[in-house]
């Protein structure tokens, strides 16, 4: 998988180039565009009640989308945030990190998301 942060700093978006076997998880409303061979599954993050509490208390989405290639050798998608601003790529330490509400946009498929 290759990623490129574009249109910095005010209206940044993430161009993701997927290869077979790659998976990326995005916030429920983060997808701006995708190739026709990119597919996704929508999941409720953390179970219904945790997701509902997160939505009511912090304004976070109830759902995340997991993007992958349905067919073909490569595919692209563009993920974006719902407010103007920049994006930062972070390496997640073994002990994890805590994010402020609305700070999460996307992660690779091997990252465990908890609420």
Structure, described:
The chain is mainly β. It has one domain: Double-stranded beta-helix (4-Layer Sandwich), CATH 3.60.160. The protein contains one helix and eight strands. The protein has one helix spanning 48-58, and strands at 2-6, 13-18, 24-27, 31-34, 38-44, 63-69, 75-80, 106-108. Strands 1-2-7-4 form a four-stranded antiparallel sheet, with no helix packed on it. Strand 1 and strand 2 form a beta hairpin.
Specify the biggest β-sheet: 4 strands, antiparallel
Task: Tell me the total number of β-strands.
Answer: 8
State the CATH class. Answer: Alpha Beta
Helix content: under 10%
Strand content: 35-45%
Shape: globular
Instruction: Summarize the helix and strand pattern as letters.
Output: EEEEEHEEE
What's the topology here?
Blueprint: E1 2-6, E2 13-18, E3 24-27, E4 31-34, E5 38-44, H1 48-58, E6 63-69, E7 75-80, E8 106-108
Antiparallel strand pairs: 1-2, 2-7, 3-6, 3-8, 4-7, 5-6
């Amino acid at each position: 998988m290759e990623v490129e942060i574009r249109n910095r700093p005010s209206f940044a978006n993430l161009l993701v180039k997927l290869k077979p076997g790659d998976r990326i998880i995005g916030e429920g409303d983060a997808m701006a565009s995708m190739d026709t061979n990119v597919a996704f599954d929508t999941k409720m993050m953390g179970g219904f009640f945790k997701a509902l509490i997160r939505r009511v208390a912090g304004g976070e989405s109830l759902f995340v989308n997991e993007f992958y290639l349905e067919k073909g050798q490569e595919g692209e998608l563009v993920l974006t945030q719902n407010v103007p601003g920049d994006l930062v790529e972070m390496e997640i330490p073994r002990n994890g990190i805590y994010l402020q509400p609305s700070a999460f946009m996307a992660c690779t498929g091997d990252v465990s998301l908890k609420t």
